[in-house]
Design a protein that fits this description.
Layout (H helix, E strand, L loop, with lengths): L12 H11 L8 H14 L4 H13 L3 H14 L4 H13 L3 H11 L6 H13 L3 H14 L4 H13 L3 H12 L6 H14 L2 H10 L8 H13 L3 H14 L4 H14 L2 H15 L3 H14 L2 H14 L4 H13 L3 H14 L12 E7 L7 H4 L17 H11 L3 E7 L3 E9 L22 E5 L3 H14 L2 E5 L2 H13 L6 E5 L8 H11 L5 E5 L5 H4 L8 E4 L4 H11 L9
Parallel strand pairs: 4-5, 4-6, 6-7, 7-8
Antiparallel strand pairs: 1-3, 2-3
Helix pairs in contact: 1-2, 2-3, 3-4, 4-5, 5-6, 5-7, 6-7, 7-8, 8-9, 9-10, 10-11, 11-12, 13-14, 14-15, 15-16, 16-17, 17-18, 18-19, 19-20, 24-25
Length: 581
């Protein structure tokens, strides 16, 4: 143990601190006992100066005492703002704490001195998550100038190229790593993902095999099993299923959102937050995810973060009454009464003459009333939340599904209840103007049987199951998928393997994914003669009214019915084998 006792080695105070500062650069090249002795000497010369605070910061950082290290680095920079390494170390610690904007400033200042690959890497990660790909690319390349063999920098650069759809460059970057780490399964998995994004499915399959990943089970099967476990409250098993899907497709936001929901339901708040934040880094803006993050931060007592997430949620969806209410409650709790009043005013305005903010038009009102025991006010505000239930064997998805279905059809649902007196649910649903056509009682018979291969894209499991059953009964061979990206890949693969689809049925709206309109455009680029059918439960959508303008050959409405599907397929699909066979 070195005993300093304030001894200044024969220097005046100012001279001692100057000498101590001159000794600090050598620390980077020392280790073990030699480094400890050098640090002790610096502390002995200048315990309260910039060099002394810098050494204390290093020691706290080695002990993983992040807050204490940050405080010492700040103290060092208050004495001397030109210590580049202190800026860099402070920036990296701030990045760990999530203070991204301040971290960028400190990391940039850290590069004023000797180029440190860690600072470049920190900046690269920030720029990548912000979508500033050119700057991220530059920083990753700066890391590789200093250390050409740093695997994580090659991988990071490949991710930048992939996100920018520069697939060949991403592949080349990963092959640089694979040439020295040919048995590294993670590298092969990353290569598989790039080949998959590029559309080279055969090569992607080879890389998945090298990565040791079984590609025989459809991704949707993992989601289906995960949903079953989630409904039965077997949260850990649900999490495993969603994670298996993400292993095969790490950027699949649908699976990530379900994983976040499962963690949230299981009470794994930190894990849920990490997953939701990853979703935001992938799709850039989702009001619902920001709202969920706000709820989680509020649950943890991190009210500043909760407020920031609720505000971002309202920026994307200004009419979300629940978010206004939660913000108002936080402001009230913190004594910020004026801000609370403003939020309550917005909430009242949303619920005034039009409490559900429905667009102008005619609506059908349906009320269902019981004389049961009623619902407490505490539970009443949560009954539409997914997975919330007071029943021992309940799934918590029934009323959440009702709410979702009614909202998706342009309506609203509300509930009122008095304990001991009963509950009333009221649904407002858009009414179709005009008279119903008279039923003549005579229907032309429809020939149900057909032949060929049909691809069905829909994000709802039940819809895909029904379509598979109906089309299979008719005699068609059926393939299904959940979003546009997968539909394009399946279509391209079928065409490449000379087993093209006779028709493709595309759901118009895929929340959080690639919908029917964009998918149709991509498929038409591959095969202008493709037979595309748009499906939707929204008859008023302009794409439905002008479907040919968007490349579609026909329309089927949801929910599917046997005769409707049969009639449209008979009209569009030849009775012989599909073209190209």
């Amino acid at each position: 143990m070195a005993v300093t006792c304030g001894f200044n080695w024969g220097f005046s105070s100012a001279d001692a601190c100057t000498k101590a500062k001159m000794l600090t650069p050598a620390l980077a090249d020392l280790s073990g006992e030699s480094r400890t002795k050098q640090e002790d000497r610096i502390l002995g010369l200048c315990p309260d100066g910039s060099a002394g605070h810098f050494v204390l910061g290093l020691r706290h950082e080695r002990q993983k005492e992040v807050d204490e290290a940050i405080a010492e680095y700040r103290a060092a920079l208050e004495n001397d703002e030109n210590i580049a390494e202190a800026h860099g170390n402070l920036g990296l610690l701030l990045l760990k704490k999530g203070a991204r904007d301040e971290a960028v400033v400190e990391l940039s200042r850290g590069l004023m001195g000797k180029a440190d690959p860690r600072n470049h890497r920190g900046l690269a990660d920030v720029y990548y998550n912000l979508g500033r790909l050119d700057e991220a690319e530059e920083e990753f390349k700066s890391v590789l100038v200093e250390n050409p063999s740093q695997v994580s920098a090659h991988i990071g650069l490949a991710e930048v190229y992939k996100k920018g759809k520069r697939f060949d460059e991403a592949i080349a970057e990963l092959h640089k790593v694979a040439s020295t780490k040919s048995r590294d399964r993670e590298i092969h998995r990353l290569l598989a993902e790039v080949y998959r994004a590029k559309g080279e499915l055969a090569q992607a399959g080879k890389e998945y095999l090298l990565a040791g990943i079984d590609q025989t089970s459809p991704l949707e099967e993992y989601i289906r099993k995960g949903d079953e476990y989630l409904i039965s409250r077997e949260y850990e098993k649900a999490i495993e299923m969603y994670q298996d899907a993400i292993i095969k497709r790490p950027d699949w936001t649908k699976a990530l959102e379900k994983l976040g929901d499962a963690h949230m339901a299981a009470g794994n708040d930190d894990e849920a937050i990490a997953v939701y934040q990853k979703i935001l880094s992938l799709d850039g803006g989702n009001s619902g995810i920001h709202y969920s993050l706000g709820v989680l931060f509020e649950r943890q007592g991190a009210l500043d973060k909760a407020v920031a997430e609720y505000q971002e949620s309202l920026r994307l969806d200004p009419d979300n009454g629940d978010t206004h209410r939660r913000l108002a409650d936080i402001y009230t709790l913190r004594g910020k009464n004026q801000l609370a009043i403003e939020e309550y005013k917005k909430l009242v305005a949303l619920r005034a003459d039009n409490p559900h903010q429905l667009p102008p038009g005619h609506y059908t009102r349906i009320a269902v009333e019981d004389c049961g025991c009623g619902i407490s006010q505490e539970n009443l505000v949560r009954i539409f939340d997914p997975y919330f239930t007071t029943k021992p064997k309940g799934s918590g998805l029934g009323l959440a599904s009702v709410y979702s279905i009614v909202k998706r059809h342009g309506g609203a649902v509300e509930v009122s209840s008095i304990l001991g007196s009963g509950t009333t649910f009221t649904i407002h649903i858009p009414a179709i103007p005009g008279r119903l056509p008279e039923d003549t009682g005579v229907n032309e018979p429809v020939e149900l049987r057909g032949r060929g291969r049909v691809l069905v894209m829909d994000d709802e499991d039940l819809v895909r199951e029904i379509a598979t059953y109906i089309l299979g009964f008719m005699g068609y061979e059926v393939a299904t998928c959940a979003d546009g990206q997968e539909a394009v890949e399946l279509f391209r693969a079928a065409l490449t393997n000379n087993i093209p689809f006779s028709a493709v049925i595309l759901d118009l709206t895929i929340p959080g994914g690639v919908g029917g309109k964009e998918t149709a455009a991509r498929i038409m680029e591959i095969d202008p003669d493709a037979v595309l059918i748009v499906s939707s439960g929204y008859s008023s959508d302009p794409v439905i009214a002008n479907f040919r303008h968007y490349g579609f050959s026909g329309v089927v409405s949801k929910p599917f019915d046997t005769e409707g599907l049969a009639r449209e397929l008979k009209r569009l699909v030849p009775t012989g084998p599909p073209h190209g066979c």
